[in-house]
Amino acid sequence: MIIPGFRFAATAAGIKKAGGLDLALMVADAPAAAAGVFTTNRVKAAPVTLSRQRLKAGKAQAILVNAGNANACTGPQGLQDAWETTRQAAKLLNISERLVLPASTGVIGQPLPAPKIAAALPQLAARLHPGGFLEASQAIMTTDTRPKTAILKEKIVGREITLAGMAKGAGMIHPNMATLLVFIFTDAAAHPRILKRLLLEALPVSFNRITVDGDTSTNDTALFLASGRAENALVQEPGPPMLELGEMLKEVMGDLASQVVADGEGARRIYRVEVLGAASPADALKAARTVALSPLVKTAMAGADVNWGRIMAALGRSGARFDPELVDIAYGDHLIARKGQARGPEAEALAQKVIQTGSFIVRIHLHAGDFSDYYDTCDLTEDYIRINASYRS
User: Which of 156-165, 166-175, 218-227 has the lowest mean pLDDT?
Assistant: First the structure.
């Protein structure tokens, strides 16, 4: 996977307790237009603070990412470590430290092993190459079972544009503005203001419509860099080129978001909660989000239990306006509740077969209006508990 104007590398710096690739460097051949969005959690990791400051200039040339340590809740030393490691990377790359964006993921509250990163950086910088995208995507994983990447090539105003992204995440997934670690690269020429706008437009239909466990991380970061190597006319204002680039971004980010849910910690079943007939857009979102987040619904899915009463209970506390005696609930194409009442054992048996397929849609019709929304999520299994109970030990 090659994106013109960018090089990538990864190495094992000894940060992850289980070993393996855990440090990645992603570098543009020249300063690139850049934009980003970050966690809405009040508790923000040091790399989030530093990257937000540096992105105000709308330019970046490198991203330094480590896995295994979040560098969050680490006080002034954490910020110093983020600054120092990026300074060392910048020196090796012969660029300004202000152009290096740090990102971290892993255990919260532990000091960043900056000496290990410093020792690994020379080898990492020496290994940069255009084809290193996949190994970089592997180095940013923590509890992920597989890397998550997507690439798209399209013609925009006669120029072939490449847009590719990687994401990291399997748990602590419930973003409000960004999510996990997401890095998007394109060879298009675009103004930083346009990149930020496109990110904000793509998030609501991708990463802001997924949840695994309802937790929003301290480190959530989504960065978008444009090298300009495609030599298209600069996209700097609304119009067809901006719309086409935006559609490419939505497709790539949507693909990555789906991969995140499919790799949810311990997940066996992936499903979409689709709410129809809501009284307002806000009601549709409230209803979909509450059902998707419900631990009781998620554990029922894990056991292939067609316990639609749990869905009704979640709807009732969602804040959405509706008449319970008008609600229809279907698993796939099989209606199991009609006007708020059960349709019997045969209907539930058919619905159970739908759950056992592993990927399905729960359709909820409120019959209260004309608005709809959705959330993609997964079940909650005993493996989720095992993974998170042993995360540090």
Answer: 166-175
Please report which confidence band the pLDDT of residue 306 belongs to, taking 50, 70 and 90 as the band edges: very high
At 178, the pLDDT band (50, 70, 90 cuts) reads: low
Task: Please give the CATH number for the structural domain made up of 6-262.
Answer: 3.60.70.12
Query: Can you spell out the DSSP letters for 230-278?
Result: T-PPPB-SSSHHHHHHHHHHHHHHHHHHHHHHHT-TT---EEEEEEEEE
Q: Measure the CA–CA gap between 382 and 63, rounded to whole angstroms.
A: 36
- Domain extent listing, the chain: 6-262, 270-389
Q: Are 26 and 131 in contact (CB under 8 A)?
A: no
Residue 392 clears pLDDT 70, i.e. is over it: no
Q: Which residues contact 258 (CB under 8 A, 6 or more apart)?
A: 210, 376
Residue 285 confidence (pLDDT): 96
DSSP per position, 110-160: S---HHHHHHHHHHHHHT-BTT-HHHHHHHT-SS-SS-EEEEEEEEETTEE
Question: Is 49 assigned a catalytic role?
Answer: no
Catalytic residue chosen out of the listed positions 179, 211, 290, 381: 179
Other beta carbons less than 10 A from residue 312's beta carbon:
16
Q: Which CATH superfamily, name and number, covers 270-389?
A: ArgJ beta chain, C-terminal domain (3.10.20.340)
Rounded CA-CA distance 258/323 in Å is: 32
Residue 374 CA to residue 311 CA, distance in Å, equals 14
Q: Please give the structure tokens belonging to residue 140.
A: 């940013």
